[in-house]
Structure formats: structure tokens, C-alpha cells
Amino acid sequence: MAANFFAARAPSNKNNAAAAKHVVNPANQPWVEKYRPKTINEISAQEHTTSVLSRTLTSANLPHMLFYGPPGTGKTSTILALARELFGPDNFRNRVLELNASDERGISIVRDKIKNFARQTPRAQQAVSSDGKTYPCPPYKIIILDEADSMTQDAQGALRRIMETYAKITRFCLVCNYVTRIIEPLASRCSKFRFTPLDPDSASARLSYIAQAENIDISKPVIDALISTSHGDLRRAITYLQSAARLAGSSDPPTPILPRDIQEIAGVVPDGVVNDFASTLGVPVEDEGMEVDGQTSRKATNFSGIQKKVKELMREGYSATQILSQLHDLIMLHPELNGLKKSKCALAFAEADKALCDGADEELWVLEVGLKIHKAVNAP
């Protein structure tokens, strides 16, 4: 009897050991996951969406949903936070199926894995979780299809019928970047929620919170650099912040994080380098409030001077596409250049973009654009 008892208990101990083995150390966890919002109220900036979804917590009426918008705006975090508040930590795994449609996007996945999960009938109950909280636990499950715009047309067509058949016991949430890639019959069955890029204030507040939680001293220029290089993608900004913190902490004593460090990590050409190149081409620029070369930022250069500056940029290993992209923004938003000069520069950028996409030589086309900009800017 004793032998049988210990033999029966052995798998349980093994399972406990396996469960303990998969516990992630918070110190080694990516900050994107570590600070992913746990509740609807923690979602940044998307007030319209969160206010509508918050009402579903008090009722069992949740429609099929379609979340769309740019990357890093909180689409996946929002539906995961909603699911946690509906089902609680104990029932989350039983009631929620999360699939990344960019990996599993064929019709076989829809017919097998999704259909089998959708047809299982859940029980309605008031779930008192192990954390002592009570969750609504409504009588349906949620299937989350991330990157749904990567699904094939056949898979989307098969999914349409499944959504109709099992609508009483299963809700679908499609998450995508491009809503136009979702077939109309599928999109019409969902309530659409548009996620917009985070505004600077919301992104700054979230980044400051993470920096404070990690005991990192960052200045406002560093936060501004994180926001400008991430272009409204909070996930990218948090990743840049974590990379910069690790680099700064690798030295003894730790070095302060500077805006230039963020730009280097992001693969962005430093502002001073772009401004110096623009100044060489004759574009009036200011570098951090100071005029280039003391009195004036305009330089009268010839072909040899521009060619020398382009060679310096190429030796530094900067991407031609990134250089031209930042130079384009500087010129198009320049307050002193008139419309005619900007239009001539825009044509030069357009030709270079097409040529670089076709595999043309980077140095030659940066030189070509530089010469055309110099000619346009210095024209009477």
C-alpha cells in the first residue's frame, strides 16, 4: 500500500517541479511584458475604447471585436487585460485561446484548433479566484487572433461560418494593423475599435513610471528622444529604454543615459549629424538652439565639399534611407524655405527612394540628393 501511495504521489511532485521550473525571474523579464497592463484602467491613451469595454465587465454581452491600428498602441494588451478581468487568473487558460495568425494562418488551423476550442460549452459561474477576488466569468470563451491581417483569404472565409455557428458560447477578437486586409464579411460581424498612436503626454507618463519603478534617472530630453524615435509605438520606446539602461549600467560607475544613446540604439542618425550635413548643403539649421558656425548656418560649398561630407557619413555606417528620411523631415518642416524649393527637394527624395528600393548604390544617391538640395536651396 505504501509503495502504491508513493507511486501515485510521484507525478504530482514532478508536475510541481516542472511548474516551478517555468517561473520567470522578473529581473530577466523584458520590460514590455513586465509592465504590460493588467487591467483596463492601466491602458494608456485609448480612452474611447477602454470606456466602452469597461461597460462589458458589468454585463455578459460582449460582441465579436476587431482591434486595428499601428503597432505598439495597446491592442493585444487591451484584450488580454479585459479577459483577465472577466475570468480571473484561475479560469484564464480555460476560457481564452490566443493565437498569432501570422504563424498559424492556414485554413487547417481554423478547421481544427479554433473550431475545436469554439465548440466547447463553458459553465456560467461567479468565479472566486485564488487571489480572493470575484470575477464575472460570463458563459462564453474568447478566441484572440493576433495579426489577423496575415490570415489567408480561405482561412478568413472559414472563420466567418465558425463565428456564426458558435456565437452563443464563443467571442472572437481579431487584432490587426491593416483593417483593409480583413475581408468585409468578417469585418461586418465585429465591432471595430481603432487604436491611435500614443500622444506624447501619455507615452511620457508611462515611460517615466517605468523608469521610476526600475530606479533609472532619465531626463526630459531622453524621454523626448524615446518618443520621437518610436513614432507613437510605446512597445518600441520601452524596448529602447531597457536597452539603454543595460548599456548605462554595464559600466562602473553607471553612466547617465543621453538622448544620443537612444538615437544610436534606435538606429537613428543623431540630430547633430543630420544638421551638420544639411548645413553643408546650405540649409539654415540650428543645433539645440545654437546656430551652426556661430553666426550663420549657411555654407557655400562646391561639389568636392559635399562629396567629402557624404563619404564621411558612409564611413560612419549610417543607412542612406535613414539619412534621407531625416533630411526630408528637416527640409519639409523648415520654416524658412519656400514651397518651390521644398518641391524641388521632394522630387529629389522621391527619385532616391525609388532607386534605393531597386538596389542602387547608397553613396551615389546620397551624393545625388545632396547636390540637388544644394542647388535648390541656394537658387535665387
From TrEMBL:
Which BP terms does GO give this entry?
DNA repair; DNA replication checkpoint signaling; DNA strand elongation involved in DNA replication
Molecular function via GO? ATP binding; ATP hydrolysis activity; DNA binding; DNA clamp loader activity
Residue spans making up a coiled coil are none
Q: Which domain of life is it from?
A: Eukaryota
Q: Where in the cell is it found?
A: Nucleus
Family, according to the entry, reads as follows: Belongs to the activator 1 small subunits family.
Name of the protein in its database record: Replication factor C subunit 2
UniProt source species: Coprinopsis cinerea (strain Okayama-7 / 130 / ATCC MYA-4618 / FGSC 9003)
Q: What is the lineage of its organism?
A: Eukaryota, Fungi, Dikarya, Basidiomycota, Agaricomycotina
